[in-house]
Structures are given as C-alpha cells and as structure tokens.
Amino acid sequence: VPTDPRAPVIVGIGRSPGPIAPDLSTLDHHRISLFEALADAGLPKASIDGYFCGGGGVATGFVSDDAPAMAEYLGIQHRYLDGTSLGGASYIFHLQHASAAIRTGMCDVAAITYGSDRYSVSGRALGTGAVAGAGAAVAVSDILEAPYGPTVVSLYALIAQRYMHEYGVTSEMLAAVAVTARKHAALNPAAMYRDPISVEDVIGSPMIADPLHRLDCCVVSDGGGAVIVTTAERARDLDCVPVHVLGAAGGQTHWSISQMPDLTRSAAVEAGSRALEQAGRTIPDIDVLQLYDSFTITVLRLFEDLGFCGPGEAGAIAAAGELRLEGRFPCNTDGGGLSATHPGRRGIFLIMEAVRQLRGAAGAAQVADCRTAMVGGSGGIMSCIAAAVLGRDAA
Amino acid sequence: MHSEPTLAAMTAMSWSDLPGGERLVEGDAIILSRCPACELTRLYPFGVCPNCGSPTDRLAARGRGEIYSHTVIRRSRRPGFAELTPYAMALVDLEEGPRVLGIVMGDPAGISIGGSVDAHVVRGPDDRYVVIWSMG
After folding, report:
1. What is the pLDDT of residues A220-232, one digit of tens each?
2. Which of B30, B29, B20, B15 is nearest to B124 (CA)?
3. φ/ψ (deg, to 5) at A175
4. B 90-129 near A (Cβ less than 8 A)
5. What is the ipTM of this complex?
6. Are A86 and A384 in contact, with CB atoms under 8 Å apart?
7. What's phi and psi for B125, nearest 5 deg?
8. How many Å apart are CA A290 and CA B113, to the nearest integer?
9. Contact B99/A208, CB-based, under 8 Å?
C-alpha cells in the first residue's frame, strides 16, 4: 500500500535543560525546545506554518505563554493556529489536531511547544495548593467544589479510593508503579530522582491525601519540549528516522470532579480504541507505553481504560513488574513524571519519549525491536484524555 | 470546623456566588434544578435543559446522601484549609441523584464508601453559605 504523501510524520523533538533550570523562564523553555526540535528535524523556523501551544507555563516573563502571545514572541508566521488547553493532555490533543491539519493541507510543518519554570517559581508543593482554575469563566468546580479546599492530590485520591474499593487494588500495587518509574529514571541522566526506592519506601512516605502518599505523586520540575510534525512526503527529504502518527484521538467525561459519571472509567476507553482503530493496530502490537503519571493511580487507570487489561487488573500487573523495561508492557521508560520530569503538564514528554524509543535512540532504556508505541495523556482530573499510536512503519 | 480562618476560606469561594444571584439554599434545604421532561437533575441551576430544551423546575433536596468516594486531606498549602488538616473530603450522592463534593465533619477514620451523610448549611459573613456534611 503506497503511503499517503500527506500522512503525518514526527521529524523533530527537542527539549530544554531540566529538571531544574533556575535561570530559564517559561518563554526560554519554549524557545530552546523549539530550536532543538528544528535542529533535530533539519528544518528552518521559517518553514513552520502550523503552531500548537496550550500554555500552562508560569507567566514570569513579559508575556504569558498562550498560543497567540507565543506565536508573536517566537515569530511564527502561521496559517494554522491551535491554542487548545486541556491540562497535561493538551499536547496529545495537539498531535491529533496537527495530524488532521497536515492531512487536509491546512499546514505543512506543525510545531507543538511547551515550557514551564514551575519548580523554580513554585517549588515542590504543586499538588497541595489550589487546583488550577478554569480561568475567568465560572465553572462548577469554582463555586461548588473550591469552598472545600480541594488539592490536585486530593481529587486524584478520590479516584484512587473508589478504584481500590471496587476492585480490591492495594497501596502496594499503586506503589509498584512508582518503584518501576524510579528504576527507569536510574537510566536517565536528566531525571530529577534516580536513587532506587522500594514499595515499602512509597508506603512509608508521608500520606498527602489518603490513599496517596508523597511517593505516589509526581515530581515538580522545570522543563520544556517541542515536537515537529510534517508530511510523509517532506519527511523523505529529511535526514531523520521518521515516526508515523498512525492514530490520535481524544475524549472527555467531565471537567469538574463531581460531574464525573464513574470514577473508575475515563474517556481513555474511547480515545484508546479510536486511536488503535485509526492505526489499524491492536493491543498486542504495542511495544512500549508512555502513560501520564501525575500520580500512580493515573497510570493504572489509563492502562486499564486504554484496553491493556480487564477491569481491576492493572494493579496486579504493575505489582508483577510487567510495566518494567523487561516486562510485557514497558511503560514510562524515561522515569515518567513520578521520577524524571513534570513541570506542571507532562503530555509533550510522553510523545518525545515514544519517539526516542521508536528511533532506537533510548540508550540503556531501549525496548528491543520497538516498532509501535502508545501514548496516553490525562488532562484535568482524568477529565480530557487523548491517546496516540506512533510507529516506525508507515501503515 | 467553624474556625474563623476556615469559615472565611470556605465562604470566600462559596455556593452563594452563582451568577445572577440564584440561590442554592433556602433555609436549611439544598435547592436542585430538575428537568420535568427528561429528569436531568443538577445541583447548579441550568435554566433551559441542555438535553431536551425544556424549562427546568426547582426541587428542594432532603439533604441526605451516600458517600461515593472520600479522602483525607493531610497536606494543604491553602490558607484556611491548612489549619483544618487532616480533614475528610468526599463525593456525596444525593438521594435525588446529583453528586456533590463536600467536607465531612468528625473523625475521618469513621468515614467509608456507602456511608450515609446529612447536609448542613454553614453560614459565614454577609449571608455567604456553603453546605458541609455529617455522618448519618
């Protein structure tokens, strides 16, 4: 089957210095990541005609990092602009939107950028402060939920508590996700924490919001990332290992936690099956997973809802070590948000690590014969979920 | 629970802040909005039903619910709530259908999924109010 000349292909990834970069602003993280990605692709900045930016960094410079302000700052002359901002999943939604724009000829070279100096501005305690608001608009969460002082950790804790109640999943099973992430982080020189931890360490760490302990929670770092997507036709002229966007889809169940119909079922069910269907792939085809890990519970819920196991089974699979590099479902091979990098929103790093694996450029963390990857991102409180299937093979 | 900083924090961002001055509480009763045609029921007023376009009714809830999930907030950097830690926060399913978030008073160790809870209207300065819960 000949490849569609306009099929979307990732040709560049770039990242800014991290996990702690006190001298860099949010804007610096966007800019450095973009130029790294362009150099990786071998494309000039002027070739960018589609720009995707969800903001979410810390506004410490003279402009915020929302899409039009960043297009101005970076000097991008776009003919397609997307400011979709759906929390940490934004960048996988961007990949879906960029793929559609490229396929339909609305742009030829799409750049997705993210940057945040969260750690240097806010310190470690992101998950115990106020939940990032919905902005000026009045949302259910602003009036009906904010009066109770919910923290990000506590809202994910509600999901964890219900999930454990329904399926008998244990704190030890959740802890296994953090232990696995730390094992992988040991292989990543840019990871924030690299010393090994045990299940006992996780369970013995201070409880932040029951049942989530400190080590069930992601790190808070600085950092930035960028991804360049273009057409298969154009990719052929570039000196890079092309990574094909075979499928990308999203879904939503709620925005405020009280409106989530079922705490143990997210829109990853629909996003995952749609992405796989587009890709013409099934679960056994997936060689590596990069799943959003704001908290250990997030990984178990996404793994399950994306279709890698039946209801309630993810905990036992994690506890059996199957998410490790040598397991059946190698997951978060860079150490994830739990140990490596999480500047507030992690989605773009999921894409970049999947690309690194598919290029065979993951070094000590390389999954053997890695041809197909799945990326799953969660935005809000498992509210907006996006999934993508990426591959070495064009179809 | 009713310490000044906590009460101030809770009512600073309060159920009394609905646009248009709509009230969610009358006396000690929670007022729900309900579509008489398709039975969609929500805590917050939604005027015309987004499902079927019918005008909605208002319905006084009995103020009883069941714990759907819960947590104990042990670490908070938020003024007014940091002083309250550890405290229990829960998702409560009202008898009438809607699910709401709330604080549950009392010893967090006594709270479990499926447990019954009763609503209490807590009033702060300037007739600002929120609803919190006690184990039934």
Report:
1. 999 999 999 999 9
2. B15
3. -60, -35
4. 90-91, 98-103, 108, 113
5. 0.95
6. yes
7. -60, 155
8. 32
9. no
